[in-house]
Design goal:
single chain, mainly alpha, 3-stranded parallel beta sheet, 7 helices, 3 strands, about 60% helix
């Protein structure tokens, strides 16, 4: 299960780096909804997420140090209230809970109501088996 979640995150990285028309439209919408989220700022944070969080070796290392839901044979639900002062600032919180395999209930910031919901929705498109683990995947 952890291996599948890591694979899904690597697919998300590929999607972000491809800069598809869909992703470009999402970034444009985010900029229109929050003037602080300029294209340059969004690109900077997208690159940081891809480089720092979505590389295979660090994901494998971090994942190996987790006691996942499957290993503990226990289910927990984690609440995440995401900030919205920086584009996708809640991604690390999401990532930690997602890798652990525990369920999460997300409250998105009204200041970042486009980017993070889209990334979570994209993860669910890439692996629908995680649908039960993520509550409120879209605003």
């Amino acid at each position: 299960m952890l291996a599948k979640r890591i694979d899904t995150l690597l697919q998300l990285k590929a999607y972000l780096l491809q800069n598809t028309e869909e992703w470009q439209q999402i970034k444009d919408l985010a900029e229109r909804q929050n003037g602080w989220f300029t294209q340059e700022f969004i690109e900077f944070h997208t690159a940081a997420i891809c480089d720092q969080y979505l590389s295979e070796a660090p994901l494998q290392k971090f994942g190996s140090q987790l006691l996942t839901a499957e290993q503990k044979n226990k289910s927990l639900s984690v609440g995440i209230t995401m900030a919205g002062n920086i584009p996708m600032v809640g991604f690390h919180d999401f990532l930690c809970v997602y890798l652990s395999g525990y369920s999460q209930r997300i409250k998105y910031s009204s200041k970042d109501s486009v980017l993070m919901p889209h990334l979570v929705k994209k993860i669910l498109e890439l692996d629908s088996n995680n649908e039960a683990l993520i509550s409120n995947p879209a605003c």
